[in-house]
Amino acid sequence: YQAHARGLPWKKVAELNHAATQSLKPQLTVLLDIDPVEGLKRAKDPNRFEAEGVAFQSQVRQGFLKSRRLDPNRWFTLRSDRATAEENATLLLAEIEKRFSKRMARRSAR
Predict the structure, then answer these.
(1) Could you tell me the pLDDT band of residue 47, with boundaries at 50, 70 and 90?
(2) Where are the alpha helices (H) located in 6-84, listed in sequence order?
(3) Gyration radius (Cα) of the chain, Å
(4) Backbone φ, ψ for residue 6 (5° rounding)
């Protein structure tokens, strides 16, 4: 996602990632989406990543959103600026239950 923000070719980065991970992909990727301005305001221990500024953070966010568009079934998005941490935790647990309850039941039956 930083590669997107730095203008690296998306397809080439995807190919390198594919090779480096031997095609391994997560079954669920959680995007904690927030407006970059608000996200930077919340940063409690700013580092060099935050120092890149709002424009860079906006481009990183666009990279996440592009990845979600390209593989939507893998992604679950939580709006970090519209819900409390507790509300988002409840939503995430419900999503995990929905996606993986059958698999978890099979494992516990062993």
Answers:
(1) confident
(2) 10-20, 36-42, 48-51, 54-70
(3) 17
(4) -90, 5
